[in-house]
Amino acid sequence: MQIRYATNLSAEQYVQQQGWQAATLSHCPLHPLGGCRFCKNGNYSRKLPDGAKIARWYCADGHMSFSLLPDCLASRLSGSLIEVEDVLTEIENSPSQEAAADNIRIDIMLPGALRWLRRRIFLVKASLSMLIKLLPGLFADCNPSILSFRSVLNVDYVLPELRQVAGSYLPVLPPPLGFGPLPEAKKSKKSCRQHSTGTDPPSIRC
Ligand SMILES: [Zn+2]
């Protein structure tokens, strides 16, 4: 299970300062009254950003591990939330997804680049759509786009801000913003869910 680690550190600062060392989990989320075998369970490494680790705890009675994901890092996608948001912003400012793909993923062929882009669009829009319903007082006039949310929140980057603003909903919001399940794809098979390039960490159960 992933748990929010509230921090203002950027991804670079998190790595430089070894932010995972300061992450603490005072009690077992499954057994808040204590009495279970709850202990620190080391750190695990993420592929990206290079050098990043995530602090982890384990409850032997609940057979569950808990990892503290800092606000700067994407859930179940490599890299930072800012990197994810930069991709979405580029897409929203581009005349087409193909044009955005040509700018963002010059290292791979267009079909692969489009799959990579659409996975991010699908996941982020799913979260934003849910938040419009969950927090109508804030987002009722928004459409599920980064630019729309940015204008309401008045911040440079929406996704790290939403970790705080929508903190209580993170368990139900899909990654890379939230820690909940992947949203249902419209198409049953061959959905973008199955193309999990770059997803990490593989060892975590959530
Ligand atoms: Zn426990």
Could you characterize the architecture of this molecule?
The protein is α+β, with helices and mostly antiparallel strands. It has seven helices and four strands, in the order E-H-E-E-E-H-H-H-H-H-H. It has a four-stranded mixed β-sheet with strand order 1-4-3-2, with no helix packed on it. The relative contact order is 0.15. The structure holds zinc ion.
What binds here, in terms of ligands, is: zinc ion
Parts with pLDDT < 50 across at least 5 consecutive residues: 190-206
Strand order of the largest sheet: 1-4-3-2
Mind summarizing the main beta sheet?
Answer: 4 strands, mixed
CA gyration radius, whole angstroms = 17 Å
Q: Average pLDDT, to the nearest integer?
A: 90
The count of helical stretches stands at 7
Proportion of residues in helical segments: 25-40%
Descriptive tags:
single chain, disordered C terminus, 7 helices, globular, 206 residues, binds zinc ion, alpha+beta, four-stranded mixed sheet
